[in-house]
Design goal:
Elements: H1 2-6, E1 14-18, E2 45-49, H2 53-56, E3 66-70, H3 77-86, E4 92-96, E5 113-117, E6 124-125, H4 126-133, E7 141-145, E8 148-149, E9 158-159, E10 165-170, E11 182-183, E12 189-194, H5 203-221, H6 233-248
Parallel strand pairs: 1-2, 2-3, 3-4, 4-5, 5-7, 6-8, 7-10, 9-11, 10-12
Helix pairs in contact: 5-6
InterPro entries: LRR_dom_sf
Protein name: RNI-like protein
Region (Disordered): 1-28
Length: 249
């Protein structure tokens, strides 16, 4: 593959690299130069899986617009934040099984789509997530496939003026507490999926779900809203199905 890349062929705009577990057929290169041959300003969409921070760092240039990172290790939080903030064209970021605290304090003002998949780890702090989201005023799509905990009652409410689609998961009532601190006047799609709800009589969970429903309804009927939002059957069904499963077991 390396010989093919070095040949005078057009550089791709979409690059996918996955680190295998088979033994190398030649001496291993230095981590900081392992992927340098793949760096190209033609790459707009980049998907990386199983590498270390030292290995991927040379590829994270300002030209990347769409970035997917899966199963990364030893990511230094401060360095990663600085690199992300330097990627001014980045409009989509998808991270799987990565320490999500890397987003805390990062100013990703041009991001339009954020996908967080952390089902392989315990949880992410609600306060940290809200702080990160507060910088993303252009965000249109948010997918949070990880438990969100630790949201303080006095956490300030943030507004996501361009958010139109949200998907999330919950296992306990506190997993959706952060949604009570988010205002999204243009929301069109709202979906919550339940994970192994163990307490069939979890009153707190039921109350939390209805709180979210009330908040959506309040946004949809607000006279100050620029685009009135009717309560669609899809969003209502998503919330009620979770509450029903909790009640009935």
């Amino acid at each position: 593959m390396c010989h093919a890349w070095d040949s005078p062929t057009p550089n791709p705009s979409h690059l996918v690299l996955m680190k295998g577990s088979t033994p190398p057929v030649r001496p291993v290169q230095r981590p900081e130069t392992l992927l340098t041959r793949f760096r190209s300003p033609a790459v707009r969409k980049l998907e990386l899986q199983g590498f270390t921070w030292t290995e991927i760092r040379p590829l994270l240039g300002a030209f990347v617009e769409d970035l997917t990172l899966e199963r990364m290790s030893d990511i230094p939080l401060q360095d990663f934040r600085l690199v992300l903030e330097g990627m001014k064209k980045l409009h989509r970021l998808s991270m799987s099984n990565i320490d999500l605290v890397v987003l805390h304090g990062a100013s990703l003002s041009n991001l339009e789509c954020l996908e967080l998949d952390g089902r392989g780890q315990h949880a992410v702090s609600g306060n940290d997530l809200l702080t990160a989201l507060g910088f993303m005023q252009k965000l249109e799509q948010l997918d949070v496939q990880i438990r969100v905990t630790g949201t303080a009652n006095n956490t300030p409410v943030i507004t996501l003026p361009n958010l139109t689609s949200f998907s999330g998961v919950l296992r306990r009532s506190r997993d959706v507490a952060y949604l009570g601190h988010v205002t999204a006047p243009r929301i069109r799609h709202f979906q919550l999926s339940c994970w192994d709800v163990t307490q069939k009589d979890d009153v707190d969970l039921k109350d939390a779900l209805w709180m979210v429903r009330f908040r959506l309804h309040k946004l949809s009927t607000s006279p100050s809203s620029n685009t009135p939002l009717p309560m669609s059957a899809q969003r209502t069904a998503s919330i009620l199905s979770c509450a029903s499963r909790t009640k009935d077991g």
